[in-house]
Amino acid sequence: EFDAHTRSYGGHRTATLPEGIEVTLVPLRLGMRAVGLLAAAGRQVEPGTLDAIAGLTAIAIERAKMLDERRDAERVRQGAELKTALLASLGHDLKTPLTAIAVAAGNLRSSGVNDELRRDQLDIIGLEVTRLNRLFQNIVDMARIETGAIDAEREWVHPADIVDAAVQQVQHALRSHPLELDVDTPRSAQVDPRLTSNALAHMLENAGQYAPAGTPITVTASVDEAGLTLSVRDRGPGIAPQDVEHLFEQFFRGAGARQRSFGTGMGLAITRGLLAAEGGRVWAENHPEGGACFTMSIPAPAKQGSPVDRGSS
User: Fold this and answer.
1) How confident is the model at residue 259 (pLDDT cuts 50, 70, 90)?
2) Is 253's pLDDT higher than 50?
3) Which of 209, 190, 192 lies closest to 263 in space, CA to CA?
4) Where does residue 270 rank: exposed (0-12), middle (13-18), buried (19+ CB within 10 A)?
5) What is the largest CA-CA distance in the chain?
6) Which site from 167, 194, 291, 310 is most exposed, i.e. has the minimal number of CB atoms within 10 Å?
7) CA distance 159 to 189
8) Rounded to whole angstroms, what are the CA distances from 1 to 12, 15, 237?
9) Of all residues in the chain, what percent carry a pLDDT higher than 70?
10) pLDDT, tens digit, for every residue of 12-66?
């Protein structure tokens, strides 16, 4: 109840701490509900002033609680959206290769199949199986990133080894593109070769999918005191301005990607997550001479080591 004489509400108490400090205890009220307790020490303050401070503090506590609840609700909503997007993307991307495999297998079972047609159908099956394996690996990598289950195991490696490993992973996406490699650096870097090559593979796959067939893809590598830098440039239409800041979000597909029948929007998000485990980063920009350029940078110690002697420690 309000005490008109002291101009304060009831519930004020005083207490002495073990150190001999005297404090005034004031309930933090939000309407008729107590949400905490204010302990004030030091010079004397009027009870009404303490009530005012306690009231503002109670409002701040309630506002913080409301913001936390709103953030929790937003996370739940985003999680539901991600699950919906994932199921839709996976449903489409699983159906396409499975249909191609079923058709090719049916053609192989038909009578009168010559050797050339058999090889063509087997190539189709092999390509689609590779695409399925890549899709399942993306799912596993995304789950590991989400749960923080990725640990970097650094070792001395030359950029040429990283590029070779990445190219081997995504040969299916690079078949129609000549590769231009500029990785002749005399230095090696101490990075995780598996994480780094996987991240680069997603950048190469992205370039191979969205650049016109027959156009070259350029891979550039450098090692300096700051660490390892790898760039992938294509000769495609470039990146739409409104897409630049969203490229590395989960399941995001840009304006150009939506016109195509493949892609889950996981690749570049996985690239960012893999590099984050090494303390690295990735960004994208349009090249002045046309096309898009994706660059990844990993802070790492460097040492002299040519491709000939890069196995030395």
Assistant:
1) low
2) yes
3) 209
4) buried
5) 106
6) 194
7) 8
8) 11, 21, 72
9) 85
10) 888 888 888 889 888 888 877 888 889 988 888 888 888 888 889 999 999 998 9
Residue of 108, 141, 142 lying closest to 124 (CA atoms): 108
Rounded CA-CA distance 152/228 in Å is: 15
- Given this model, what pLDDT does residue 187 score? 93
Distances (CA, A) of 139 to 72, 94, 144: 25, 12, 9
- Among 72-76, 205-209, 231-235, 308-312, the minimum mean pLDDT is found in 308-312
Long-range contacts of 215-219 (CB under 8 A, 24+ apart): 215/177, 215/291, 216/177, 216/178, 216/179, 216/180, 217/174, 217/177, 217/178, 217/179, 217/180, 218/179, 218/180, 218/181, 218/182, 219/163, 219/179, 219/180, 219/181, 219/182, 219/183
Q: How many Å apart are CA 61 and CA 63, to the nearest integer?
A: 5
> Using CA atoms, how far apart are residues 227 and 275, in angstroms rounded to an integer?
13
Q: In this predicted model, what pLDDT tens digit does every residue of 272-292 receive, in sequence order?
A: 999 999 999 999 999 999 999
CA distances from 78 to 28, 73, 86 (A): 34, 9, 12
Which structure tokens are listed for 285?
């920009």
Q: Name the token pair of 36.
A: 């905490």
